[in-house]
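Table 4 source record.
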Amino acid sequence: MTKTILHIDASARHQGSVSRDLSARIVERLAPQQTLRRDLANALPQLTEDWVNANFTPADMRTDAQKDTLALSDQLVEELEAADTVVIGTPMYNFGIPASLKAWVDLIARAGRTFQYTENGPRGMLSGKRAIVAIATGGAPVGSEIDFASTYLRQVLDFVGISDIEIIAADRLNADQDEALASANARISALAA
């Protein structure tokens, strides 16, 4: 049983968004005890020099201004830490993820918080979690050589320790919307809670 889901939507559209609809269906199917919600339609801030400097300052040496600079990032990391399952709904924009979702990734990929450097390379610190990513595309097939969305999300989620990742695609919607939606909804219906 899923206790806590972090539900993230990245589509700029609210009305008629396939990825939002799919991610909502996933959350409904899993029926968590608690859902944390993060809507990225209103873009997150980009990394700045002040953010980078604050991030690489040891936590016990940060000024109040640096703590304020990292406050949103800390909140986003805490949401991830609290979740058993992360559900991400995203469109594919120009073969990749929306800039708002990339900004979220930049804000949660934190050395010493979500991953650590070891003598064997980086190791994710968020293990034991599950991620389900719903991707909607107009023409690009998910899993193809021109899909830089699902491959990137798999990489970054695994990088922070989330290796149980399932991709549910409603791809090539402009070619055959009915088939794409039927396939995605069948996959959602088959999800184990």
